[in-house]
Amino acid sequence: MRLKSKNLRWIAGRPVVILTEKAAKKLNVHVDDRVKVSLNKKSIYAVVDLFEGVVRDAEIGLSKEISSYLRTKGNETLEISTAEMFLGAKIIKKKLDGASLTKEEIVKVVSEITNNNLTETEIAYFVSAEKNQGMTLQETIYLTEAMINSGKHIHFKDKIVADKHCIGGIAGNRTTPIVVSICTAAGLKMPKSSSRAITSASGTADVMETIANVELSTDKIKKIVDKTNGCLVWGGSLGLAPSDDKIIQVERILNLDVEPQLLASIISKKISAGSNRIVVDIPYGGGKMKTKGEAKALGDKFAKIGKHFNVKFKPVYTDGTQPIGNGFGPVLEMQDVLSVLRNEPDCPQDLKKKSLYLAAEIMSLCGIYFAGSKAKKILESGEAYKKFKEIVNAQNESKDFDKRVKSLSLAKVHFHYYSPKSGKVVEINNQKINSLCRILGTPENPRAGVYLHRHLGKVKEGDDLLTLYSESEERLKDAEKFLLEYQPIKIV
Amino acid sequence: MRLKSKNLRWIAGRPVVILTEKAAKKLNVHVDDRVKVSLNKKSIYAVVDLFEGVVRDAEIGLSKEISSYLRTKGNETLEISTAEMFLGAKIIKKKLDGASLTKEEIVKVVSEITNNNLTETEIAYFVSAEKNQGMTLQETIYLTEAMINSGKHIHFKDKIVADKHCIGGIAGNRTTPIVVSICTAAGLKMPKSSSRAITSASGTADVMETIANVELSTDKIKKIVDKTNGCLVWGGSLGLAPSDDKIIQVERILNLDVEPQLLASIISKKISAGSNRIVVDIPYGGGKMKTKGEAKALGDKFAKIGKHFNVKFKPVYTDGTQPIGNGFGPVLEMQDVLSVLRNEPDCPQDLKKKSLYLAAEIMSLCGIYFAGSKAKKILESGEAYKKFKEIVNAQNESKDFDKRVKSLSLAKVHFHYYSPKSGKVVEINNQKINSLCRILGTPENPRAGVYLHRHLGKVKEGDDLLTLYSESEERLKDAEKFLLEYQPIKIV
What we know:
Strand order of the largest sheet of chain A: 1-6-3-5-4-7
Largest interface: A-B, 49 and 49 residues
CATH class of the largest domain in chain A: Alpha Beta
Number of strands of chain A: 19
Oligomer: homodimer
CATH architecture of the largest domain in chain A: 3-Layer(aba) Sandwich
Radius of gyration of chain A: 24 Å
Strand content of chain A: 15-25%
Largest sheet of chain A: 6 strands, mixed, barrel
Number of helices of chain A: 19
Helix content of chain A: 40-55%
Distance between the termini of chain A: 71 Å
Number of domains of chain A: 3
CATH topology of the largest domain in chain A: Pyrimidine Nucleoside Phosphorylase, Chain A, domain 2
Structural class of chain A: alpha/beta
């Protein structure tokens, strides 16, 4: 059936068309059915909504997801056809039934996701299938490859391009800006792209954004890296492995982190970004990995899949029993990073130590000898801080580093939480600290978050334990309730 | 935050609100985030869309799913708050992680689904979890109980109330109208509610609808059953176990049929409808159950769960290797039913035989002796046909049975498919026949469908095999393509 396009200023979160009841009847479709919308040789699958008074019977209203894909201006003649359950969904069902998928099938699913042809609900079935039926190493390799091929790539002329990744789960743990500053100051090329927060208080991109422009084109990134050796940008807008962002969005609904997806996601993004020497930080004992055995099993898969693509992934296994750093939330974490880079005596020692360790691992993976002592020297001499400034200024295309740092500030509404008794702090729960931050409004409110005054160890009654920051009284109250009910800090 | 309600004539398929970008920013929510919308003491969770030009900054646009639930008229002050991942989603995640759920947790999920507080995507995760992690018998009992308690009930004074159910998967197989006519003529009470098609060409409700009103209130049903002993209505509008309809909608996206859900769905609906003697037809060898062992494992669960609720479920295991009857599609199946009830000599013998068998099983389960010969006598004497007329007339509140039957007609666009060679028909694939019907437009187009001229056995080149009916040339062409590509009839 043919209908005239009408662009609506409507962001629906998925491709949706609006029909009148009469048009829907004629087309023999119902609410939530899928239709195929075609213009010239481009097609997109969309879900049907009925909305009287917005379009005429001869028109089809398009959500922005469709109009921007088909590049409609309005009043074009679109071909609308009903869509049977199609190949992408059939393949997902096959996986949900426990079968292994072929290379062609995985390529198909990834391309259907990339092209917006699968709904959130279908992607949820795919995520569940990956989670519960698992994927063989071979399937994970196919998935990785399909994700690499579905997106853009960045190429560097250098033989060695370094990178790091942490699988997450630890509150704070903002080592990346420090590690990149040290490694690039040591002469390594390190084009670091990071994510925004998925389930945590903030991601490296959220933290960097408090003082730097993090949404850059791949061309700009190449220029900056050629000039400064590194960058600290958001990976989301680069178009590397684009299906991944959609899958993550669906995983986020239940805070899932499905292993084959995690492997394919990280490896495909690193390879697409042009890296070939990557240290993967896998904390265990309190974050996503409960035991060292579990952590090692995952680390082995990184190494094996990497090898298939001729890229060195070196897993390192670190202490995941408690948060790292004092601040949790974009601005609070940036303050921690700055205090380590500036060698302030009261900087968080755990963050400094871990950053030095990771920097040395990367340097050594890239063939630099005496990496440990070199990394320490670079940090403590102020070279790393200078490098960090240089990178931020390059990303901002302006020498405004000092000004941006000076203007950092925290949310005004806050609450002090004191130790209710004397004793020993025996647990600081990563997940609960992250939940607390999200209730306070991170990462959307960069000035919100939690400051941790103590790590594991002795504490006296009335000692400062936490300070909570939020932009909203209401959120602060919710956070206080959460704090009392879930006790993220256990004192005995 | 408070916003003024604006009812939109918009059926979105799920509760959705429309905000301007400015309002969304103020509320700190993004597209696809969830908000809680409250009016007085009623609340509903909804997903956020941004749509400029439809509402003002101080307004919130409501899809019909919300306005009908909150009973808004427009311009009421609604309280909007952001919703963290809440209990329902946490429980689903727990199940997806492999844990068993407690009674309270299952009650919570069912009530969240019933109250529209879980999105399709979250329900998809729940369905996947049930499918891949399985559910214990105890969990399935909790689920059944929660579903019974979440909906309406029908009560009959009679000690014995009969029912039947087929788990489906067999094309045609429209025994229900015949079985109900026989059993009610034998004096049994049998208030039969049926579904519309889920994955097949048509459901019993779709077939009955070709000549009868099937959407009746529970009060009307009680009256009709008190008068005629039986009814043949659609179960969907009765409000029995309402969460089930939503789950089925999500299962349908991938044509899933998840066992614990299937058990809970059938058992809860039968109990809510007041039945206590139920024969469950479980075909094997070609439909949903591959082997008799599989079929028996499922049958045992029906019996066990039924026992917990003091209701007798008797599983019977029937031949599922090929379609039953000649016509597939609402009108075509009604024609088969009528020809059996009228004892026409060329009526489909397989349908007649199976209907007699099931009727006898039900009668015997309800304490009637010599059930087999009695059933046969009731059918062949025309008593069953008379009863069927009586029930249809009662549902239509008019003596229009003959007129309605006379006006039955098939879609005009058709296609004959002849045997391409002489040989033996060795397979008629149920699923492919159903797919063929759906491509032709069933169940939405009741006059569409497939007529099967031959069952398994010898065939000569040029013999009639199938006639395809559709309302649309385009769909007929798609069906011809499917027929040639997928070969639902195998001849050797």
